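Researcher: If convenient, please comment on what follows.
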Amino acid sequence: MPLSLGLRDEENERINNILNKLTELVYVPGGMNTPDAEQLLAQLGLSIESIAGMSNDDFNSHVVKFHFDFANMEKLADVLATDPEFGEKAVSLYNFIQAESKMFSFDIFNKINALKL
């Protein structure tokens, strides 16, 4: 069921806050492999294992199902890009954003190219 505008804004703000905390964690030793990161991922309906086990399409569908806007999708992809294990998922999510937002972003394009090198 689609969210009303007010609920959508609240949900985007909640997701944004979680992703900001997760972004801070990935730059400390242990990164995404810490209990704090797992707890934050759980609030997004994810875990390290579930991310690793999902196909790229399933992962992209998951973030849509959990009402991520394109900015939050990009933040999540940025977090994933810091872990070599999830580089392919990050590229897939960046490509999904480029295709679905119907707006070309040189910033995202450069992030994709940096991960493919």
